[in-house]
Structure prediction request, 105 residues.
Amino acid sequence: MMNKCDIVQDLLPLHIDGILRESTERFVKDHLMNCNACSNARIELLNSSGNWERHSERIHEISAQQEGEKAFIEDVKRWRQRVALAFISIVIVLSALSWFAGKSF
Ligand SMILES: [Zn+2]
Prediction:
């Protein structure tokens, strides 16, 4: 024997989208009125689809934020490279100067 609840819960997404055939829709509605497990499953599905929309908005926010952070990190990297280059050239100039100074003494 097929479990009615399984069938109804499989049909729930279609029921929520309102694309069930009239006779199937009636079957699902009748069952939902008499079955707590399935009507709870329907409520959960409704809630989770709402949550999903909120969730994907949040993902958009986060990825926009991450893009900003990436650009920031790139800036920091470039800045560090410049500082490192400046530091290296200072060291070279200083050692050259001290070499000259050592020679002249
Ligand atoms: Zn049921």
User: Anything to note?
Assistant: The mean pLDDT is 88.
